[in-house]
Every structure is written in structure tokens, then in C-alpha cells.
Fold each of these.
Amino acid sequence: EAGVTQFPSHSVIEKGQTVTLRCDPISGHDNLYWYRRVMGKEIKFLLHFVKESKQDESGMPNNRFLAERTGGTYSTLKVQPAELEDSGVYFCASSQDLLDEQYFGPGTRLTVT
Amino acid sequence: AQSVTQLGSHVSVSEGALVLLRCNYSSSVPPYLFWYVQYPNQGLQLLLKYTSAATLVKGINGFEAEFKKSETSFHLTKPSAHMSDAAEYFCAVSVYNFNKFYFGSGTKLNVKP
């Protein structure tokens, strides 16, 4: 069974540009989560989808970030326009049920210059 | 509010020596506690979890952790380090319905031959 996959693995963009990160959860997992780790600090929760619905987006930094999960399968996280402080590693995780272990992808390393 | 403190961003041990990675948490309600490990270029992998059952939790790869409510701690130990244990370790706390984790800032474990 394939694990959680994320694309791209690395992205380098200039300030003001737009970037879209993609996450493919484990097949059949209704719960999908986005987290971010900035420069060796703690991994912080961004938001949680249950199927295609946003269950909790309390961790989204501001309205430059837009997450979608059309059809309840893969999810995208768009940053527009990107700022320097958006640099970091963005992790995606999925779980089958709410009380299950979260399975993490390898992350996307975003660098904004 | 919930938070996690991992003491020591870098820990170095010799192969065969005891591994002790420290984690203290703050939670206003009974917590669920987790240790995850991240090997280079991989996603976070669950090592073990505490969900209010036995206070001594055994995980994969010979790791275990003990929940101590009086000390608000959940330290990770392994009796004998192996070279393959070199990785970054994250402690996390969750409450209520598992929908989000609060992570510590991580501890990089170096194992010397």
C-alpha cells in the first residue's frame, strides 16, 4: 500500500510568486491534515479536512494560504503571494478515522527568496 | 492550551549506550502523547503512543516511554543505541478527538560508533 505522497519535494520561488503544494493521502483515508515546520522549530498544525470539508483551519497563518480537497481525495495548498516567512517544510498526514494514527508524507521544502 | 518542550535539540550517544530523549508537556486536560521519528528524506513515523492505558508504553525498534503525570513528562528511552537509530525525534500531544497534534521542536539523535 502506498503511503502519503507529496509533490514537489522541493520548491524555490521568489517573494510574490505563487506556489501550489499537493498531497495524496493513503487511499480510503477520510482525514487529511497539513502541518508546517519553520526553520528547525516545532511542527505546527495548519488545517484538517474530513473528506472534502474543512473541519478545522485554526492554524492557517493568513488569507494568503488556501487549501482545497476537491472530491475528498488529494489536497492542494496554495500560497499566494508567497512571503519570505512562508519558507519551511510543509507536511501532509492522513488517517482513516479520527482516533487513528496519522501517517505523514515526506514533506515539501519550500524556500521563498 | 497544549504545548510540548523537548529538552536538547541535539543528543549524541555511543552505539550500545542508553538513549534518553526528554519530553515535557503542558495540557489542561488528560493528554494523549506520541513519539514520532523522522529519518532523512522520509515522513514522520509513529514510534509509540500513550492513550490513557498503561503508563509504560512500548513501541517499535526497542523504544519505550513512560507517562508521568506528576512530572508532566513522557521521556523516550532505548536501552542500547544502534547506528540505525540516528534520526530526528518528535514528541507530540493531542487532546479530545485527535484532530490536531502539538509538536515539540524535535531532537536530533546522533549515534557514534
Amino acid sequence: GQNIDQPTEMTATEGAIVQINCTYQTSGFNGLFWYQQHAGEAPTFLSYNVLDGLEEKGRFSSFLSRSKGYSYLLLKELQMKDSASYLCALYSSASKIIFGSGTRLSIRP
Amino acid sequence: DAEITQSPRHKITETGRQVTLACHQTWNHNNMFWYRQDLGHGLRLIHYSYGVHDTNKGEVSDGYSVSRSNTEDLPLTLESAASSQTSVYFCASSESGQGKNTQYFGPGTRLTVL
């Protein structure tokens, strides 16, 4: 089976940096996604990690350690529009994605 | 531009009625998925399809059915709606093949069963 754990809620300050952690257990690892979801909207793709290490994409970076079953999403120079839920998700076999419950991030001025 | 759409965006129905939610994508993706999203549960997979005439059950398929008669559409049917099926429903699609597994989501349908 598969299990994904991430904090339910986090709060950060505009202009700061925040790290959202995700730990997982899976019998077969094929990749890890991060999606962003604003309230009342659809999830949108942020990143996909297959290999260990850090992948940077503008203000957002995603890190993966397969041996530790651990990933994090790093958001720099936080903006008010970054207030959203961030979903950690495992790519399982046969094109399926298993989603965690998400971390709701609130940005304060 | 290619896109994925869902209709209706909002639906209120009564217990016991049959309801069909539409999902249409113009990316020519082989893979299509239906999820429901509830507070505390995240996104849960209902049904999915890898191509025309192919359908598969997800983790929460009871009370739901799908059919795939063409590449573009995967309608989701609630055979006899129950209050427990009040939720937000998202359709998604992805390409098939190595490294082409990112799913793209439709805007969602908010369904209320009274």
C-alpha cells in the first residue's frame, strides 16, 4: 500500500521562505508530484521528481530523497497569491497518482 | 487552445436520482480520471480509463460508473444519488508513455445531494 503524510496547515509571512514537508511509504516508487490548489479551483501541476535532489523552478523548488521517503516543496519570496493548498502525490504504477490530503498555506502581510 | 472542461459546474439533485457529470478534453490524451474531493480526504480516485472502451475502478467506485466511447469524453454517472456523494468532482487527463504522466485537471463540479 501507499501512505502520504504532510502537515494540515502552515502559516508564513509575505516575502519570507516556507518549506512544506511530505513523507511517504510505498511499495514501489515511480515519482513524486507537487500540485497547487487555490480555494474553489482545480489542482495545477507544480513539479515532478523522479531522481534524488533539488529541482528549482523560479520561486518554487522541490526536493526528493527516495531512501528516506521524503520530499519538500520550498517557496521563496512569498506572495499573497501563494495562499493555497499544496498537494504531495505519488505516481504509482499504471499512470495513477495517489494524493495526500494537502497542506493549506496561509500568507500574512 | 486545448483544454479540459466539466459540466455542469454546480448541480443540486435529490436522493435516488440518476446524475451524469460530463468531462471533455481536447488534448487527445489517452488517460482520463475521475476524482472526488472532500475535506479531510484529499483527492480520491473513482474511475479511470486508458483509452476508448477501457474503464477501471478506483478506490471509491461504489455507486459510480463511467463509459468511454471516444477519446475526448469520460462521463461519470451516479446511478442512484446518495447524500454521501455530495462532494466536489474533478476530471483529469494525461498522456500515456514514459515520462508523460502529469495529470491536468478540469475546473470541477460541485454536486449537492439533498
Amino acid sequence: ETGVTQTPRHLVMGMTNKKSLKCEQHLGHNAMYWYKQSAKKPLELMFVYSLEERVENNSVPSRFSPECPNSSHLFLHLHTLQPEDSALYLCASSQAFSGIYEQYFGPGTRLTVT
Amino acid sequence: ELKVEQNPLFLSMQEGKNYTIYCNYSTTSDRLYWYRQDPGKSLESLFVLLSNGAVKQEGRLMASLDTKARLSTLHITAAVHDLSATYFCAVILYGNKLVFGAGTILRVKS
């Protein structure tokens, strides 16, 4: 595997379900991100982890819970979601403190909440 | 609050024509990024502009940055159909935080 991978690629869940999105980066980076991309809205930053520590929580509802067990893996745990949470969820990684901060994105998970 | 504005938001152009996409941002930043997204796909990094006056070119695309004017441009030369995609600019707010523009949907017609 190369770059940033995400699983699953597609997910349909009911409002009472609990599921998790997984992201793995194979680039040796030390920062990871979750973004939400909805139709007709700019890309929204949700969470930032740098050196496995959460450094940004962009006013995201508590029904989204991130976890970063190590610098290569990032999870987004989902529970009691709403239909408006349906979106493309993108994971990205970068090398923090490099001065460049270029972010590399995974293919995304298309989430549909029914 | 950093605001990043792109214009136009939608651009339909003929093959072979030239055009420019503009990215304005509201607070000081010296790092700007351009990404491309194809329908249903993820974001692909195109350019990283790290200083005032930076200019980068790749094929038919050229990006520039004017930090004093808080403006970046993405110039398309002799457009071809394969360039049809959504183009995003993004600006570093602080640390690792990128703020994205709304995106410009580009459609190149034969």
C-alpha cells in the first residue's frame, strides 16, 4: 500500500448504528486530519492530530469521536448520526514542522446516513 | 477568521482557450496550495507555493502567489478536456491548519 488509504470506501448506516472509519498513511508523516466534504460546501476541517495528540477539534459534534493510536493510523468513530452527516469523509496526512505542510489525501469514505 | 475566496466558482471553457482562476484570502499567510479533485475522487496536490512571487508550472497549469495582495492565480493555457475537474486553493492559517476555498468547477468543452 502507498500513500493514504481509507476503509471502507462506502458506508450506509442507520441513525442508531455505531461504525468506524479507518485511515492509514504510508508516508512516514506525523500529522493526520479528518475532513468532511458535503455537497455545495467548502471542505471542512474536523480534527487534527500532530504527533498523536489532538491539536484541533473544529466544533465537531460529539457523535464524531476521533482516535489516533499511532502516527500511521487514524479512526473516526461514529454513533447516533443524523442524515445531514451524510458526506464524503476525507483523511489526510502531512509532515508537521517541515515548513511545507503539504497534505496528502486518501480516497475518502462516502457515508450515507439513513 | 481566515476566509478564502475563489472565483469563478464555475467555469465552462472551450478547448484551446486560456483562462485564470483567482484565489483571494483575508489574512497574512505565506503558504498556499492548489489541489485538483475529479468527480467522486479524492484531492490531488498540484502546487505548493511557499513565498511571495513564487511561480510553479506543470503542463498547461501555472500557479503564482502574491502575498502582499493576498492573491494566488491558477492559469490554464490551451485547455484540454482532461483538465475538467474541481480546483481548490487552500491557505495555511497556523500550524497544520489549512483553510480551503469553495472550489472552482472547470468544464472544458470540445
Amino acid sequence: ELKVEQNPLFLSMQEGKNYTIYCNYSTTSDRLYWYRQDPGKSLESLFVLLSNGAVKQEGRLMASLDTKARLSTLHITAAVHDLSATYFCAVDPTSGTYKYIFGTGTRLKVLA
Amino acid sequence: SQTIHQWPATLVQPVGSPLSLECTVEGTSNPNLYWYRQAAGRGLQLLFYSVGIGQISSEVPQNLSASRPQDRQFILSSKKLLLSDSGFYLCAWSGQGVSKNIQYFGAGTRLSVL
């Protein structure tokens, strides 16, 4: 069974702190995506990682991909309250159809 | 630029009633289209995807069906809703080809079956 697991599931952190969210997947894939979801809202694309060793950064967020370890990380630097949301990673295990398998999600709360 | 529209935004339906949710995409042609469901506080489950008009693939056996009557229109239906059909339904699209593999999501429909 294809699995995409994120940890932690819940994360409460103080503003200004750093933390990393992990995304492990159980199938071969060289494409991984990160999305953000605000409460009651849809999903917003954050990062697209298309090869082993890919690293993308946007503001206080940085995502990386290690396809050999089947692991992606989303690193948060000096967190601010506006980053509070649920973060999902998604893997496309089937070439050509872009059928994502979503992770369980990490609910992040940044405390002022 | 491309946009995706989904409606209605909120729907409350009695058990046993029919359902029709609509999704349309503008500004692109021949997109891949997807329907997802998200239970409260949970991740996303892919329900259906389509790579072209009339081409529908079902991922999970259930009480729902999907149709794609036009290139940029994707419809999710049910003849008789169940309580377990409640959830947040999201439509998404992606382009064709490896370089266009990001899925873009609509605003979603929150369905409550009572």
C-alpha cells in the first residue's frame, strides 16, 4: 500500500523558533509537492520538487527532497504567526497521470 | 491566466437526496481534472480523475460518480446521498506534460448531509 506519512501531525511553536516537518513516502517517486491549507480554505501550492537533491525556498520556508531516502523536509525559520496553517506533502507515484497521494498533514500553530 | 471555479461553496442536503457539484477551468485547454474529498481534520482522498472528455477514472468505490461533458467542466454527482458523504470536496486541475504537473485547487464545496 502506498503511504505518505508526515510528522509531526500537530506542532505548536513560539514565534522566532525554527522547526522541521518531515514527509516520508513508501514508493518510488521523484516528484513531491508541498501545499498550505488555511482553516476552512482550499489548498495553495507552495513548492514543487522534481528531482533528488532539489531545494526550494520562499520566505521563511525551505523544502528539500531526498528521493533515495524517500524523504522530504519543510523547514521553518524564525516562525511568525502568519505561518499558522496545515501543511500537506503529496507524492505522484504514477508517471503521466499526476495522481497525487497526500500526506496526513501537519497542523502548525505559531504562538505570538 | 488560468482560473478554477467550483460551486456551490456550501451545501446542506438530506440523506437520500441527489447531488451535483460543478467545477470549471478557464484559461487552459485539455487539463487533467480531479475530485478530492477531505473529511474534517483529515487529509485528501482522490475520488476521480480525468485526462480528457468522457474519460473518468474512479479511485475509490463509493456512492459517487463523475462526468466530464466538456473539456473544462467536471461534475461530481450522487443519486442518493449518505451521511458518510459529508465533507469538503475539492476540484483541481493540472496541465498536460511533466513540466505542468502542479495541481491547482478550487475553493471547495463544504457538504453536510443530515
